[in-house]
Amino acid sequence: MTNANATPAPGEAIVIGAGIVGVCCALYLQRDGHRVTLIDPKGPGNGASFGNAGNLGWASCVPAAMPGVLKKVPQMLFDADAPLKLHWGHVPAAAGWFARFIANARPARVEAIADARQALLSRLHEGYQPLLEDAGAEDLLDYSGLLMTWESEEAYAGSAYALELRRRRGVPMDVLDGNEARQMEPALTPSVTRAVHFPRLAHVVNPLRLTETLARHFERRGGRLLREAARGFEMGPIGPVAVTTDGGRRAADRFVVAAGVWSKHLARQLGTRTPIEAERGYHTVFGDPGIALRAAIMSADRYIAVTQMETGIRATGVAEFADPERPADMRYAEMVQRRAQGLLPGLRDGQRTQWMGPRPSHPDSLPVLGRSPRFPNVVFAYGHDHIGLALGGITGRIVSDLVAGRPAPVDLTPYRPDRF
Length: 420
Ligand SMILES: Cc1cc2nc3c(=O)[nH]c(=O)nc-3n(C[C@H](O)[C@H](O)[C@H](O)COP(=O)(O)OP(=O)(O)OC[C@H]3O[C@@H](n4cnc5c(N)ncnc54)[C@H](O)[C@@H]3O)c2cc1C
Description:
Layout: E1 12-16, H1 20-31, E2 35-39, E3 55-56, H2 69-78, E4 84-86, H3 91-103, H4 107-121, H5 124-135, E5 141-142, E6 146-150, H6 153-158, H7 160-168, E7 174-177, H8 178-184, E8 194-198, E9 202-204, H9 207-220, E10 224-226, E11 230-235, E12 240-245, E13 248-251, E14 254-257, H10 263-269, E15 277-288, E16 296-299, E17 304-309, E18 312-321, H11 331-343, E19 350-361, E20 368-371, E21 378-382, H12 388-404
Parallel strand pairs: 1-2, 1-14, 2-10, 4-18, 6-16, 14-21
Antiparallel strand pairs: 3-9, 5-9, 6-8, 7-8, 11-12, 12-13, 15-18, 15-19, 16-17, 17-18, 20-21
This protein binds flavin-adenine dinucleotide (FAD).
């Protein structure tokens, strides 16, 4: 007699996308005994996971759409120096996204979204720990905390609600004045007058090396990594039976779509449409910075994050809404560079490198994380916007729970693929 509640036996699984999210999904499925194939044309960690700010931020529950955003967006779009960029040609494609984004700025929605983000963020170390331990990659995390800074009283007052959202969700923080902030981080400009320190908050000192190390560990344990692009699916009676790629036909019985912003087209082929936009961010790495930072920094007035990496100091910022394949406009990486040098006057600009990558963003600042509404053997795991590095591990853990039929550690209702 078979037990209807029995966990399904391990089988053949395919994970599409080898960013930090896909690699963590592949590792967790492998831990459950599945034979796993990971497919990515560019190899591990070369999408958004390459060049992010590295923060593993339990302090990031605050969504992008906040009360009052309707007034700020037009001003930001017309100000050449603002961090928000939208190309006129992209307006028709993004209009619906922005309409939903603004609808999510209502206080009740903001509270619900912050709860849903925090539910995942508070488990981020639980998600990563087993993977980092197994792969011997714990040295990639630095727990020196995060310093958020303000240079204008008006901007600080404008952040009161965002700080309150964090405080009410139990995020530990110390409020500092400018001198206290400079004692903690002497490289800061004298114009910093306010700061909040989030103690022991971790950052990854080399996000690419993290994804690559985990992917190598996956291969060492028998996982198969194919440098191919998924093009579509071959369908069977209950769902897909194979992924068609530029290299051939790859058969499996379980499928995970984890291709960041590129998941949109793959999910659509499986009958699920989610409004996802490429929120393209830029970075400049100062390879010979002349200073070393004691904590990761986020400047609320300059809209940048600055992080000490093993390759130098990395400054990130800008949200450019455009097709992910449109060529990068490195003037924005230069804007980030100038802002970082304003915040940290001693920052030398030798040996700089620049980069652009697409944050996969839904208008409600939540990922899609759940079983396909149409096909029981498909799980979607994409759209982690500004916190995908932080959420890679816990996402992988939840995906493996869904595939195994185990209860997930959080209520997955807010992340349903069919919520839009
Ligand atoms: C400037 C910037 C700063 C950021 N800072 C932070 C931060 O401090 N902390 C944080 O948590 N997050 C941060 N983020 C967000 C984070 O980087 C992303 O949320 C995260 O990397 C998303 O990971 P992913 O695996 O879903 O997507 P990606 O890393 O984009 O990976 C998707 C993969 O899918 C592959 N792919 C595409 N099409 C196909 C196909 N057809 N077949 C197979 N594979 C395909 C791509 O090649 C790619 O490798 C930042 C992002 C940016 C841009």
